[in-house]
Amino acid sequence: HCNAGWLACVDVGTATAPLYAAQAAGRRFHVFCDETRPRCQGASLTAWELAHQGVPHHVLADNAAGHLMQRGEIDLVIVGSDRVLGRTGHVANKIGTYTKAVLAHRHRLPFYVAIPLSTLDWELRDGREIPIEERSEDEVLGAWGAVTTPGLRTSAAAASRPGQPAYVRIANPSSHARNPGFDVTPPELVTGIITPVGIFKPRELWRCRRRLGGPG
After folding, report:
1. Does residue 113 sit in the same domain as residue 167?
2. What is the pLDDT of residues 67-120, one digit of tens each?
């Protein structure tokens, strides 16, 4: 979900690091990569990284994950995070992460969050304190993409330049949208927090804070 690879985090990324390690060890696996509407970081960035690395994958519509979990086609979920509360284990990440965590919990699938130590917030004491950005409604009401077929219903200038980015309105012209950029996943839905110094239960972070670079 979203992008937590080397484009966002350098080196081998966070959520992608276990995948590349498994690939290097010769393990066989397949990745379902969420498109991550409305900005489609999964479809445009993570999928590009996986293809570049030669990792077998499919891009998945955001709302299709539950269906594949129900069919037994998914074994575990790994996401990155923008902020993890060291005192409580709450996880803030791209909108839709909470939904995936709920689905994983319903289907008894492990749900892991991979982070660098810099993502840990040792100050906030409640997930409700994490500010959630409301982004432009245009991101939901339309979509950006590359023009691949001349004559598509887009601007004449864009249609004359195949491969160039173009914005297309996809919603009813008189409708408005809500567009929260992030959501917060409670610690009880998280199997483990993957860090450079080990994997921790969300409620273990504060107790192990010295190992994690937290306050003394």
Report:
1. no
2. 999 999 999 999 999 999 999 999 999 999 999 999 999 999 999 999 999 999
11-18 long-range contacts, CB within 8 A, separation 24+: 13/49, 13/80, 14/80, 14/81, 14/114, 14/115, 14/116, 14/194, 15/78, 15/79, 15/80, 15/114, 16/46, 16/49, 16/50, 17/114, 17/194, 18/78, 18/112, 18/114, 18/194
Residue 17 makes CB contacts below 8 A (sequence gap 6+) with: 11, 114, 194
Same domain? 172 vs 189: no
Token duo for residue 83: 């902020």
| Containing structural domain, residue 144 | 136-179
20 sits in which H/E element: helix 17-24
Same domain, 140 and 117: no
For residues 102 and 25, what is the distance between their CA atoms, to the nearest angstrom? Answer: 31
Catalytic residue among 82, 121, 138, 183: 82
Residues 141 and 189 in one domain: no
Looking at the structure of the chain, the number of domains it has is 2
pTM above 0.85, yes or no: yes
Q: Is residue 212 part of a domain?
A: no
Active site residue 82: yes
Q: How far apart are CA 32 and CA 45, in angstroms?
A: 14
**Residue 37 belongs to a domain:** yes
Q: Are 4 and 79 in contact (CB under 8 A)?
A: yes
